[in-house]
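The freezer alarm interrupted the setup, so I double-checked each line after restarting. Inputs confirmed:
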Amino acid sequence: MDTQHREFLDPAVLTRLSSLPLYARKMMMGNVSGRHRSPHRGSSIEFAEYRKYVQGDDPRRLDWRAYGRSDRFYVKEFEADTNLRLIGVLDTSGSMKYGANGVSKLDYGKRLIASLGYLASQQGDAVGLTCAAQGLGVQVPAKRNAAHLRNVFNTLADIKPKGETGLVEALHKVAEQVRQRALIVIASDLFVPPSELLDCFQHLRFRKHDVVVFHLLEAAELEFTFDRPTRFLDLEGGPSLLVEPSVIRREYEAALKEYIEGIDAAVRDSAVDYHRIRIEEPYGDVLARFLVSRTPRRSRR
Amino acid sequence: MTFLQPWLLWGLPLALIPLVIHLINLRRHRTVEWGAMQFLLQATRQNRGKTRLRHFLIMLARILGVAGLLFAISRPMSGRWFSWFGDQPDTIILLLDRSASMAQQDMQTNESKRSLAVEQIATALERTGEPPNLVLIESTRNTPQTLESAASLREIPETRATDADANLPAMMQSALDYIVSNQAGRTDIWICSDTQSGDWNSEGGQWAAIRSGFQELKQPVQFHLLAYSQSAADNASIRISELRRERGTDTDRLVMDIQIRRSQADGSAKLPVGIVVDGARTVIDVEMQGESFALDDQFVPIDKEKEFGWGKVELPPDVNPRDSVFYFTYGNDILKRTVVVSDQPGSAWALKLAAAPPVEKSTAEAKIIRPDEIGSIEWNETSLIMWQAALPPAETAQKLEAFINAGGQIVFFPPQDDSTESFQGVKWGDWDKLTLGPDEQAVKDWRDDSGLLAHADNGSPLPVNRIIVNDFRRLTGSGQVLAHLQSGDALLQRIPTDHGGVYFCATLPQQPFSNLAQAGIAYFVMVQRALADGAERLLESQFGLIGDQLVDEDAPAWQRIDGWEEGTLSSEQRFVAGIYQEGDRLLARNRPSAEDNPGTLTSSELERLFGGLNYRIVQDQVEGASSLVSEIWQAFVLLLLIALIVEAALCLPDVRTKKVVTP
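Predicted 3D structure, all chains:
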């Protein structure tokens, strides 16, 4: 049992969230039975459809009442429940180091993915991890045992923000490498061109993955609240800039607006589950809202 | 632009405080590790245009605001007269046109062009600080006069009104001479004039020399012309062109030709012309059409027994009262007096006979005196001196030159004795005999277009070719030769003078020297012409024009009995119109005829006159004249306010658009 203290795991939050199951919006193709719908017919109590009897079908599955009404042989089929693969994609570029009140965007992303991984693992789902940074291709494949979850946590604990973002490459890579349907949870500041993101999202959607995006932003990035000359050091290693914030505030806001509109268009076109997050907000609330939003309206059991 | 508190301008660097604060602010920047660099880079790229300009304007407005405040509290003075940021010159030379035309005034304030110019200049100098040297060159004397203060301009008689004309080229030359002789430093020459064409003589050849003289000066000279070129809309002038006394059986008549001129050519005007003779006033109403009007042969009866008297013709006072009156004197017929000075009185009969022919009721009179009797000459009443003796020594020569300057005429004839003295650069040489070939005339050529030997009025030539010269005396010295002998020597030579006339005749009229006396006509005409020229000055004294040399005009004993009040000052009365009396002698003074000419120089003519010089022309007018200098701190306060408003407007926060980012 993993007794190591993890900064990105808060037991109180996990306890509060444990009553909220994690559902996928799409059908999953797991190996074992689970909470998630499968595209295949199975043995759950959820009626799926009637099918004509064909040779080879088990006669025990014939619906005699239907035969009595129609004088034809029908087989009654039920939904199959399966588990899912949760692949956390965490942006570990330098820009994720930015944050406030001692919490960086990377820390926030770790908490989101670790918590969701824990919850998924608790309901029998497989959990994997991909770190998106240029030249830093850490990948932990999805597995569903507890030892593997510890491995994922260890990897998260070791991640340091560095270099330029490799999110686009990482997402394409995930889309190619994860062959079966999976829940892809992306935690990033998405500082890449929206058009490239759109390609990634559509690629993932093509591979029938359920994509969740947590867009992590800090208040200063959104409102540019600086009021005196400031030298901005690029966390991703680019050149620094000495600017008078009041001089460029209008242009900054215009650029941000243009970017946000691009992101909105990309997520709208690709139909991903997009959540724009201010990292000042407690991540427990964010996850609770997220889990509730994915709960099916009608009870499944 | 000058400042009443210029020491405050040392604070001008404070205007850079906004810039310094900005730079300090930039240096005290904080450093932030930042992730969203893409937005910063994009914003910086887009910021190169309007926003950068906006912030530059904000900075400029702040700097201008502080500078405007500093300028305002420094109490700047400026005006049409001064160039911005002009420094105070070392010397200011004021050329003041005091001519009669400068008396044009504003009917409401009674301020004339001259008085306004003086007041403007005095006020300007008092406000801006007086230069180390303030020099006045006024138009009557054309001599530099150093002033102690600008305030004295209002008080000294040399800035008061006159009826003289002005000679701007001479004033400019005088200013140039002053600068050269006094090694003046940076000099400003301020010219106050109405730019009347006659006073400026823009076609005169001396302007080129004056321009080049100023251009060659090492020190910078700035010209400021305060021009009152605006002519009066409704001004009329009056003068007498001819005046004579006609004898009658019971009373005499004073007959005069009056000329009236007005500035307005359109329409008709009814002018009451007042004629005052010995205090008795007569008014004639004149219906005037056009610009000028001649009232010829207007007569006024006078007492037959009255030997002399005075009078004036006048118009109602208008915008220029000084050209609305004209003074005159009258007397008996003028006697043309000739004095023959000869060291051989016995042989001078031919000279006397030509000057005063023995006819009944002759108006010519001649007498023969010896050179040592020169003190007996009545200079004021003599028209012609015929000098046939050794050229006068220096003391006597001075008297003769004064006589010439007063309009008198002198004809020198060769003495038979030696003569070593010279007169106006001309000396007598040796006697010589004129030898002629067959059919040769004594006089080779002569000036028949002008001068003493000119053709008669009907164009007939004088019989100069009949003159026979046997002996003649050579002349040394330059002059205008009016007649050459066959030998090439001068028979008659004129010495150039400003006034009067000086002639040298190389032979004597009687035999055996020549046949001038016997041949008669040419000789007689020559002498009578000289006599007539000499008598003309006495005629002019009926209505003497200022500027012409008048009889005893420097004598302080003349008393004003009518005319402008400036004439009470002995130093000024030479230039002031009026009637003056000394004993039983009367003298009339009037403005020169050119002063009635309303023509002024055009801008292009002024530009031509000052071409190549550093000059400014400020047009002023007597009506509604504004000060040449004034405090302009209000303008800088306005600048400050504008700068603050602009700065505030540019700094207004943008109207926030709806937040595009939702959590």
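Quick read of the result. The interface with chain B takes residues 94-98, 105, 189, 191, 217-218, 221-222, 226, 228-236, 238, 241-244, 247-248, 250-257, 259-261, 276-278, 281 of chain A (CB under 8 Å).
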